[in-house]
């Protein structure tokens, strides 16, 4: 399966997690590309590829710096019907704005016609689990769901 992992990050945590997910999916035989949301325009999204989005939350719940240009561009987004995506959030439940970054990206994509596969899964930095211990099963489940539909 051809997969694009998009990440939005402030301090690099989502980028590192995206690379871990990439490695695991490549080991399973998938062709995977990782891109920073700062380098992607909505019109560039290829609907023939599954998209996995990993986004952290920054400050008072706004998108992290690398996802802000994408968020701005989504205000004039093209029709993204046919785009399938999974969404994963990184955050800290100690803050009232827990995982609002991933929620915002999800809402933008759905409003443009994209289809979310599975539930939005989040990692809590205040919890005991490592982010990759939550993200890898999430990614595998999204890929499996899309594969079952093929």
From TrEMBL:
Enumerate the GO terms in the molecular function aspect.
Answer: flavin adenine dinucleotide binding; FMN binding; oxidoreductase activity
Q: Where is the Flavodoxin-like domain?
A: 3-143
Report the GO terms under cellular component: cytosol
Q: Superkingdom of this entry's organism?
A: Bacteria
Q: Which UniProt keywords apply?
A: Electron transport, Flavoprotein, FMN, Transport
What name does the UniProt record give this protein? Answer: Flavodoxin domain-containing protein
Source organism lineage?
Bacteria, Pseudomonadati, Pseudomonadota, Alphaproteobacteria, Rhodobacterales
